[in-house]
Amino acid sequence: KIDTKKEDIEAKELSFVFGTNRINCELFFPFESSLTHLDESSCIVCTMCELCDNKKRLDEWIQYNQKLGFSGIIIFSNDNEENIDEMKKICKKYEDYVSVVSFPYKALRKDIHWNNIQRASFNIGCEAFKNRCAQIALIDTDEFIYITSNPQVSIVDFMKGKGTCVIQSNIITNKGIDDVFNNNVLSLCKYVGPNKYQKIILSTGELRKQKNIFICTPHKGIAGGKLLKKTEIIHYHCWVNKRWEYNDNMPILNELEQFMNG
Predict the structure, then answer these.
(1) What is the pTM of this model?
(2) Which residues, in sequence order, are bridge partners of residue 227?
(3) Phi/psi at 46 (nearest 5 deg)?
(4) Which of 3, 111, 124, 209 has a 20 to 30 A CA-CA distance from 161?
(5) Across the chain, where does the E strand assignment appear?
(6) Where do runs of H (alpha helix) occur along the chain?
(7) In whole angstroms, what is the distance from residue 51 CA to residue 82 CA?
(8) What is the pLDDT of residues 44-90, one digit of tens each?
């Protein structure tokens, strides 16, 4: 039995609070106190990544989502201690807009896919913030959402009155096979590939109603979710260089770069 007051746990990773007649435990996370400006209408991003390629991409991705109108970003840094510190330095200038959470965990067995750790981070993030915002988007740092119906509308305003939403997606890629990226993904990844995946923005109201829910995938909504048309909103996933091969039949996409620079 561990009795711990919430205000006494700022320096701890986890605290377990047990009542004498309770079966479940209540978890508190130090990063819950971040993003102090959130309110009941806020829409945030929850993601997990390593620094590696993101060292030269992360700034652009954060700035894009800030311009899109997301209220804040939680990044679970699944990396070694040195790279986690470097990521925190990159994000420091964004102050209370971005919270970097040290999450250096790996699967116990080599045959367990890394995305199981990602799913765990999503659930921790959603549990921590489900009472502090209206929606949580589960997207990666090589993914971009674009409001097709009206690019000038913020994601917060677009999502008002909507429950959990499922967004349809396309791959986008660059023309080269060995391009060097330095926060210029949107100026290089302008070629549209096939339909791929779906991504969700979760309604925290629905999360609160469904107790003990576990988010198994960022590609499907809880209890279905509403599938939105691409003419309303679309999700783009950047597969760069050799990950997806460019061909001359690919449509050109200028909207993301124009939005970013507009």
Answers:
(1) 0.86
(2) 166
(3) -120, 125
(4) 124
(5) 15-17, 26-28, 43-49, 72-77, 98-102, 135-138, 143-146, 165-173, 191-203, 226-227, 234-238
(6) 58-68, 81-91, 115-129, 155-159, 185-188, 204-209, 255-261
(7) 10
(8) 999 999 887 678 899 999 999 999 999 999 999 998 888 889 999 99
